[in-house]
Amino acid sequence: MGFGGSVHAMIVSLKNNKRKRTTLFEKEIIENNGAYGKFTDTKKMSSLEFKKFQEKLKEERKRSRRKFLIVFSLVLTVVLAVLIYFLFYFKVAF
């Protein structure tokens, strides 16, 4: 097998370039990291706090779903209006 040196060099390169993996609990918690916001550890909450947390999540989901439906319906209305305009007001002769 004549590829021993190249394979060994590849393995050594991969070992040297490997980064240390950290879990979510080992990282420093950033308050607002963009997409997800603040991390909350639900295992350390009391039952009352957990219920409040669940209600807050439900309200946020409901609000975002409502916003999505409004935007989607507006975009769909505009697309349908443009499609109807081009289908019925431009007479194309074949």
Provide a descriptive summary of the structure in words.
The chain is mainly α and 94 residues long. The protein has a domain at 45-94. It contains 2 helices and no strands. The protein has helices spanning 4-17, 47-88. The protein is flat and about 70 Å long. The model has no long low-confidence stretch (mean pLDDT 81).
What is the topology?
Elements: H1 4-17, H2 47-88
The percent range for strand residues is: under 5%
The backbone outline, from C-alpha atoms, is: flat
**Rg on CA atoms, Å:** 28 Å
Mean pLDDT: 81
Note the gap between the termini: 69 Å
Features of the shown structure:
mainly alpha; 2 helices
Structure, briefly:
By secondary structure, this protein is mainly alpha-helical. Helix content is about 60%, strand content about 0%.
